[in-house]
Amino acid sequence: MSKQENGNKEEVTIGRKLANARIKKGYSIDDLQKMTKIQKKYLIAIEGNHFDQLPGDFYVRAFVKQYADSVGLDGRELLNDYDAKLPNTKSDDYVNKVSEDKLETRTAQNKSNDRFTAIKKYIPIASIVIVVVLIIVIIWVAAAKSSHNSSQVHISSNSSVSVSSSKESSASQSSSSSKSKAKAKNKRTNKSKKNSNDNGETKVTKENDTTFKVASSSKHNQLEISSGERNWVSVMANGSSVWQSAQQAGSSHTIKLPSDTKTATINLGNALKANIKVNGKKVDINSNNQVQQVTIKF
């Protein structure tokens, strides 16, 4: 390739290339923010090549790859093409700041979680009130019946009371025994069904270096992601974000996927030190690239 051709290629910055791809897709910055869960100000900074405005050097490559994949570009190829233009993720800034900085993109999700937590606080109170009301009603009904039965006992003779009490006791014991047997049977049936659904076997088949097929009879599949070093991780189920975090060295996190999940996508900022398990079965990613996207099909 001639020097003139190299010069023409470098005129198109990585930020401009990403912006052009976004516009071609018809996405606005707000649309892209919803798709990637990356804050709007960081997306704008990437398009303007202002990488110093991102939380740290490590996030530059992770965010650029996620941006590229979301607008139809090959994120890995883009990082290779512009490798010299991007910060080195092994700099001191990466080592010192990843543990201190937190993803501000989690703020909106945390606010939503706070509202959900506030609602959950009132659920036990409401349940207690309902139970108390039911107990009061039951006591009142029992008292009314007891008063009525007491009047009948005084009118009846002693022999009639004895026979009636014997019959009621026998009927009560029979009814109680039948109910106990029915409850025990239902409990065994439900336990058997639960064990059948939850303990299904899982088989992982490798289609290529980054794509895996999982066969499982479990209704709710689980992903376990652990990191030997600091690692930025995001997980999407059927295209929707379900979890993302900057993992610390030696940490592990388990994600329970929705029951209708067909495809799970895992973006790793430090794939060389990451381990993935599906329902306890290890996924052999064998990564030679630091930044990698792993796809799991169910």
Automatic annotation (TrEMBL):
According to the UniProt entry, its GO molecular function terms are: DNA binding
Is Transmembrane helix set as a keyword in this record? Answer: yes
Composition bias, kind Low complexity: at what positions?
151-179
Parts of the chain that traverse the membrane: 122-143
Q: Does the keyword Cell membrane apply?
A: no
Q: Pfam families given for it?
A: HTH_25, RodZ_C
- Biased segments, Basic and acidic residues type: 200-210
Chain residue ranges for the region called Disordered: 151-223
Q: Where is the composition biased (Basic residues)?
A: 180-194
Domain Cytoskeleton protein RodZ-like C-terminal: residue ranges: 228-294
The biased composition feature labelled Polar residues covers 211-223
Q: Indicate what this protein is called per its UniProt record.
A: XRE family transcriptional regulator
What are the record keywords, sorted?
A: Membrane, Transmembrane, Transmembrane helix
The species is: Philodulcilactobacillus myokoensis
